[in-house]
Write a structure and sequence with these properties.
mainly beta; 9-stranded antiparallel β-sheet; 8-stranded antiparallel β-sheet; 23 strands; globular
Length: about 375
């Protein structure tokens, strides 16, 4: 992939189609199934190395840039299991801090992190995952040696060519998806990039930037990497006998729309919401969309991270309430850009592109 197609961006490289003649040759040379050694020989470079899984699973790509920020990408399912940006100048060892919350799932496999959800919607309205079958293949990698490094994954599902690009910068990371329809009929898709963001304490958790946006209670899209299932996310939580200090009143019922009227959305209680323009509103010529970004606020660490959506129409946001203890001592949110309510239509010989950026200015 051409360096200019990926590393010169505001929105990291997903947004342009790269010419991949040389990378196709490198990808073809990788043994199947790919090993850490074969990937290292084909794609390894400064800031990018491939590590074998001791349990015999797919290798992990480890990305790093010169200020010490790092990212770990599990190649089999494309799950980002660690993102440690530099957020302090001199404190706390190397000045980096883990942003993502993960926990061991079945057979010890890590869940949580940042993952892609991509479903094809049938004529009956049922959604079927496009990512439940074969694993991702590394198709390219790029870097500028110091400030950015990128891994591109690819797979083909029927008539759909799917590309997933993960990029690490000094002050941000991005995950981008490109879906190309090579068939003769339109395809309808629902999708999301879900991030499990870690917080020091339940009481100090909030987001800023959603004021004035419509929302309703809604389950998350089903995903094997999610910590909470859709049923768990939507299960009502009994109110505590004491107050945790804010968090609003009764959560609206599913399908009932309301408007966020708080500058800071406090998330110490259990919620599962989609922030978006209601589908009926979208039939109008002019309507208000969800904000293009919002900021997470950790009152106790003093850190904030901006989540930016591109190409998606909705924002999913959930907090586990008291269920967080099931997954360790840290509190977390599951959130990210999505196209859940109204499927995206990809016509023959067309592409759909979307991305999420997690960035910060804590330094």
């Amino acid at each position: 992939m051409a360096t200019s197609s990926v590393l010169s961006l505001h929105l990291p490289s997903c947004a342009r189609r790269a010419v991949r003649a040389s990378s196709s040759a490198a990808a073809a040379a990788v043994a199947s199934p790919a090993t850490a050694q074969s990937l290292e020989e084909a794609f390894g470079r400064k800031g990018l190395k491939f590590v074998a899984d001791p349990a015999g699973g797919a290798p992990t790509a480890e990305l790093s840039v010169r200020n010490g920020s790092s990212l770990q990408l599990r190649l089999g399912d494309g799950l980002v299991t660690s993102y440690r940006p530099k957020v302090y100048w001199k404190e706390k060892e190397d000045g980096c801090r883990e942003v993502l919350h993960t926990a061991a799932g079945e057979a010890g496999k890590v869940k949580g992190g940042v993952g892609l959800v991509l479903n094809e919607v049938s004529s009956s309205g049922a959604a079927e995952s496009l990512l439940a079958g074969s694993e991702w293949t590394v198709t390219d990698a790029d870097s500028d040696s110091y400030d950015a490094v990128q891994v591109e994954l690819g797979r083909t599902e029927g008539k759909l060519e799917i590309t997933y690009v993960v990029t690490l910068y000094q002050l941000s990371m991005a995950t981008a998806v490109i879906v190309r329809n090579t068939g003769s009929k339109p395809v309808e898709l629902t999708s999301a990039v879900l991030s499990h963001i870690k917080f020091d304490k339940r009481r100090g958790t909030a987001v800023e930037g959603l004021r004035g946006c419509s929302y309703c209670s809604h389950p998350p899209p089903a995903a094997g990497f999610s910590l909470l299932t859709p049923a768990e996310a939507m299960k009502r939580e009994d109110p505590p006998w004491f107050s945790l200090g804010g968090g609003g009143g009764e959560e609206p019922k599913q399908g009932v729309w309301t408007v966020e009227d708080n500058q800071y959305t406090i998330l110490n209680k259990k919620v599962s919401r989609v922030y978006a323009a209601p589908p009926e509103e979208r039939k109008k010529r002019i309507y208000s969309t969800a904000p293009s970004s919002f900021i997470t606020i950790d009152q106790y660490s003093g850190l904030g991270f901006r989540l930016v959506r591109m190409g998606f129409e909705d924002i999913y946001l959930s907090s586990p309430g008291g269920m967080y203890e099931k997954f360790g001592k840290d509190y977390f949110l599951c959130t990210g850009p999505a196209s859940m309510l109204v499927p995206v239509v990809v016509n023959p010989d067309e592409e759909w592109r979307a991305a999420q950026v997690i960035e910060h200015d804590n330094l």
